[in-house]
C-alpha cells in the first residue's frame, strides 16, 4: 500500500519511483567490490588472532610460518611501529586509550590481531597463520558491563574501566519530583550485542606506487573520509593517497572508518611494496569486526494522574569492548530520549565501559536505545496508570501546534511531526476492531498483540562535528551534452547514483538517462563524510540542487548570448534549450556545450569556458525526521513463537526524492529491527569466547521472518535546500519498540515480558507458563574444548591408540593437563580417583568443573564426557600414564582428535 | 576461511573408495553433498589429510524397491528424494522430513546418506530413518555389515561408522497399508535445525495399533527413539489413545540440553505439546480432559 502524497516540489523526477540506474549492473553480477579487484603481483594477507580474551604475549615465533613455501613475510606490531599509527575515531580524534593496528604486548579480546602473514594466496596465508607460535600468559578477562565495574582494568595504564561518563547519577531536584509524583514507572531494558553483518565483509587491496603514492581499494562508507583518515593516521600527505570504493555490499556503520586490520594491511603494503589483499572472512566478521549495541538502561519516569509526564531520570551503560571506534557513552541516547515528548524535567547518567570483548562500532541508529527504552516504558506506564497506550502518547507528544519549542537539551523543534504521523497511522488502522478481534481470539487461546511506537530522528547533522559539516557536488555538462556529476556521497546500496541523478536531472531540466553520478574515487571530487548519519539526501541532495542551479543559470546565459535573446526567456526542458515564443531557436545541449568547450571566444565577454559548476553545501545544523509505526503479532502460547501479521509505517522524511528508495530504507531498517528483537545475539562465554560465530548460531532474519510492510508518507518539507529529510536509520530505531510493545500486548494476560533482547521463544514461553525455563548452570558448565574456532592451528596429529602396558601405576591424584585444540592449548586440572577397574573424578578449569567416570586397564584410562557448549560433542578420552607423565588423545566427534599431555600436579 | 591442504580423490567404484579409506588409516573424510563438510573444512574444524568424493560412484545413487524394503543409495540428493515418486508412496514421512532439511538450494547438493551418516542430533533425516526402522549397510575392505540405526548413533556426530567404512545403502522396511505418517518440527526459521522435532509412523490394522515407530530430533545427544511411547501404543485401539499420556511417555525418553537457542526445559515443554498435538491430529486419539 503506497499512498505517497506528492509534495509541492514533486516534479518530473523528484518524487517519482524511477528504477535505479545501478540495478541492472548490480543484479547481473557486474558490481565491483573489493574482492573483485586483482592486481598484478598481488599477495594475500591472513591474520594471526588471539585465542584468549586477555593476557600478555610472552613470545612470538614466526619461523615455522616463514619456513612454509609461499610465505613472504610475517609482521607484528614491532614491524609496524615505524609508522606511529593512532587509530583515530570517526571524528578523526585520537583514541581514549592507545590502539595499535596489531596487538602490542597484550591482547584484549578473542580475535585481537597479533600478527599478519603475507603469502602467495589466502590458503597458504591461513596455513602459515596457524604455524605462528604465540605464547600467552592468560589473565581472567573482563566480560560484560557488570564485570567491568569490579574487574581488573581492561587497559592496565588507565585508571578505570569507564571509557567515558557524562551526566549525574543523582539529581536532588528530579528525586524530589519523583518522590511526590502520583505515578512513577521504572524499567530496565537490556539490549544485546549485535553484529552489523553486511553481505560484503570488510576488505582492502593496497598498492604502493613508488614512494609518494598509494592506491587503496576499500569497502568503506566514504572514499573521501577514508583517504583523509589514512593520511592522518599515517601522517602522510593526503595528495598521494587514492581510495577507490566502487560498490559496497552494505556497512550499517561498520565501515564508517578503516579499522585495525585495514590499517595494518596498508602499513604492510607500504613496507613490503607489493600489492596486498585482505578480505575479511565471515568468521572474522562475526568475531573480530567491531560490533554494536550491548547496552542497558534504567529509567524512572513520573506521571500525573492523567498520564502526563512530570520528570525522569535515566541511567545508561554501554559496553565499548576493548577498542571502540571512538570511546563512547552515546550521549545521543540521552539527548533524544525525551526530545519528541513534553517532558518538563529530566536528568541522566551515561557511561561507556571497556571490556575484554571486540570493540564497539556504529550500527544504523546508534542511539536507538532511546526509542526502545522510552516507548516500552510508555506502554508500561499506560498499563500502570490505566490509560490507553495511544492516549498516553497523544497527551505527551509534541504536536505541530506546540512548536517552535526547545527541548531541555537545547534542540530546537520547528517542524517535527511524530504526533501527526501517529494520527495518520490511526486513520489507516481500526484499533477498536482489532481490540474486539483480540478479545475474541484470546477466548480461543490465540494471543494477538498490537504495538505502537513514535520517535524523531536526527539526520544530516552539520554542527559541532567538523567532518560532517558539508558535502560537495561538482556537475559538468560534457561537450557531448551529457551530464556527469562527482559527489561526496557514497552508496552502500543506497541508490545514490539514482536519487542524486534525479535531483540533478530535475533541476537542470535534462533526461535522467543523460545524468551519471560518480562517487567512487577520492581522487575525484572533494571531501565529504559519505554514507553516515542519514545525511545523503539532505546534504548531497542540497549540494546537487545548488550546483545544478549554478550550471543551469550559466547555460541559460550562454544560450541567450548565442541565440541573441534574453536569459529570462531561455528554458531547459528534457535536455533541449527552448526560447519562449521562438521555437526555431531550440537547440540541443550538445550544440551549446560544443561552443562552450570548443569555441570559448563565442561566449559572453569574460565568461569562463566550459559548462561546469561546483557547490559545497552546508545543511541546517540538524534536520529531524519523524515516524510512528504499529505492528500486529500473534504469539503462540504453545511455543512462544512470534508471528508478525501486519506492520504499518507512517513517516515524515520531508520531500521524497524517490519513494521506492525511501521505502527500501525503511524496510531494511525494519528487517534489522526484527532480527534484533527476535533472533540476533552476539554472546560470549565467561572466558570471553564468542559463542555465535557462524550464521548457524548468529541468526539473521530471513525472508520468512519479514512481512510485507505498509507505508504511509507525510511529506513536510524541511528547512534544507530541496526540503529533504534523512530516512536511512529510522526503521532500525522505531522498529524494535514497535515489535516489543506488540509482543508485550499479546502476552499481557500472562504478565510482563522481560525487556531483555532478543525475545527468544524460550523467554516468552517462560512468561506464558509463569515459570523459569532457564538453563541449569550445572548442565552448561563450560569445559575445555575448542570454542571459538579462530582458524589457526595445524592439523592435530592422528594418534594411534596407546598400547596397554600392564604394570601397576599410580593414577590417583591431581594432574595438570594440556589439550592441544585447533585454537591453541587449553589447560585444566584432572582429579582422578580409581576404584578397581573404574576411574572417576573431575576436570577442573577456570570455567567450571565437570565430573566423569570411566575404565582403567593397567595404566590406560578411558572415559567419555558429554559436552553441550559451545557445541554438542562427546569427548572420548584415551590416556596412558607413565610415571608422572600422562599422554593420550581426545576424540572430539567430527572435530577430530586432539593430543592430551599432562604431568602430576 | 580456507581449508587446510588435503588430497582429493574422486573414485568411481565403491571398492576404490573403501581402499582409499582403509589406506588413510583414519585420516580421510568422505565428501558427498558437502553441506556440512565444506563449512567445517573452511572453518578448519575438520582437517583431514584426504577427502574422498563419492558422488561419482553410480552404484551409490540408486533407489531400489523389493524384498519388503526400500533401499536408498547414500548420494541421492535430498531434492531427488523429495521428487522420487516411489519413495513418496512408500515412505511419506521421510519425504516430509527431507522438505525440512535446509533450503531448496542446499537440498540440491545435500545427500540423504550424508545427513544419516553425520548424526547431527537435531537433523530431520536421521531421526525419521530411525523411527521408520531403517538400517545402514557399511562397507569396508574388511567386509560388509548391516547396522540398525538404533545401534548406529552414539552421541553428537558420533556413530558406529568406523574410519575405514563407507555407508553404501540405507534400507527402510515397508510399512503396511493403514499406516499414518507423522512429522513436525519447531525451528526458529524455516531451514534451521530443529529446536525440537518428532517423526515416525503408526500402523493400525483391524482397529488396533500393530506397529509404531517414533523418534525425536533436537532432544538429546542423538536422534532418540520414543520407545516407551511406541510400546504403549501397541495393540491399543487408536480411538482410545490418550495423546497427552503418550506424549508424556515419549518425553521421558529424551535428554535435551541447553544451548544458545533454547533451554532443555523449553524443549521438553514444547516437545510434549508438539507430540500430543501431532498424535491427536494424526490418529483419532481421545483428547485428555
Automatic annotation (TrEMBL), chain A:
<dbReference type="InterPro" id="IPR046867">
    <property type="entry name" value="AldOxase/xan_DH_MoCoBD2"/>
</dbReference>
<dbReference type="Pfam" id="PF01315">
    <property type="entry name" value="Ald_Xan_dh_C"/>
</dbReference>
<dbReference type="InterPro" id="IPR008274">
    <property type="entry name" value="AldOxase/xan_DH_MoCoBD1"/>
</dbReference>
<dbReference type="InterPro" id="IPR000674">
    <property type="entry name" value="Ald_Oxase/Xan_DH_a/b"/>
</dbReference>
<feature type="domain" description="Aldehyde oxidase/xanthine dehydrogenase a/b hammerhead">
    <location>
        <begin position="28"/>
        <end position="140"/>
    </location>
</feature>
<dbReference type="InterPro" id="IPR037165">
    <property type="entry name" value="AldOxase/xan_DH_Mopterin-bd_sf"/>
</dbReference>
<comment type="similarity">
    <text>Belongs to the xanthine dehydrogenase family.</text>
</comment>
<dbReference type="Pfam" id="PF20256">
    <property type="entry name" value="MoCoBD_2"/>
</dbReference>
<keyword id="KW-0500">Molybdenum</keyword>
<dbReference type="InterPro" id="IPR036856">
    <property type="entry name" value="Ald_Oxase/Xan_DH_a/b_sf"/>
</dbReference>
<dbReference type="InterPro" id="IPR016208">
    <property type="entry name" value="Ald_Oxase/xanthine_DH-like"/>
</dbReference>
<dbReference type="GO" id="GO:0016491">
    <property type="term" value="F:oxidoreductase activity"/>
</dbReference>
<keyword id="KW-0560">Oxidoreductase</keyword>
<protein>
    <submittedName>
        <fullName>Carbon-monoxide dehydrogenase large subunit</fullName>
    </submittedName>
</protein>
<dbReference type="GO" id="GO:0005506">
    <property type="term" value="F:iron ion binding"/>
</dbReference>
<dbReference type="Pfam" id="PF02738">
    <property type="entry name" value="MoCoBD_1"/>
</dbReference>
From TrEMBL, chain B:
<dbReference type="InterPro" id="IPR051312">
    <property type="entry name" value="Diverse_Substr_Oxidored"/>
</dbReference>
<dbReference type="InterPro" id="IPR036683">
    <property type="entry name" value="CO_DH_flav_C_dom_sf"/>
</dbReference>
<keyword id="KW-0560">Oxidoreductase</keyword>
<keyword id="KW-0285">Flavoprotein</keyword>
<dbReference type="GO" id="GO:0071949">
    <property type="term" value="F:FAD binding"/>
</dbReference>
<keyword id="KW-0274">FAD</keyword>
<dbReference type="InterPro" id="IPR036318">
    <property type="entry name" value="FAD-bd_PCMH-like_sf"/>
</dbReference>
<dbReference type="InterPro" id="IPR016169">
    <property type="entry name" value="FAD-bd_PCMH_sub2"/>
</dbReference>
<dbReference type="Pfam" id="PF00941">
    <property type="entry name" value="FAD_binding_5"/>
</dbReference>
<protein>
    <submittedName>
        <fullName>Carbon-monoxide dehydrogenase medium subunit</fullName>
    </submittedName>
</protein>
<dbReference type="InterPro" id="IPR016166">
    <property type="entry name" value="FAD-bd_PCMH"/>
</dbReference>
<feature type="domain" description="FAD-binding PCMH-type">
    <location>
        <begin position="1"/>
        <end position="177"/>
    </location>
</feature>
<dbReference type="GO" id="GO:0016491">
    <property type="term" value="F:oxidoreductase activity"/>
</dbReference>
<dbReference type="InterPro" id="IPR005107">
    <property type="entry name" value="CO_DH_flav_C"/>
</dbReference>
<dbReference type="InterPro" id="IPR016167">
    <property type="entry name" value="FAD-bd_PCMH_sub1"/>
</dbReference>
<dbReference type="Pfam" id="PF03450">
    <property type="entry name" value="CO_deh_flav_C"/>
</dbReference>
<dbReference type="InterPro" id="IPR002346">
    <property type="entry name" value="Mopterin_DH_FAD-bd"/>
</dbReference>
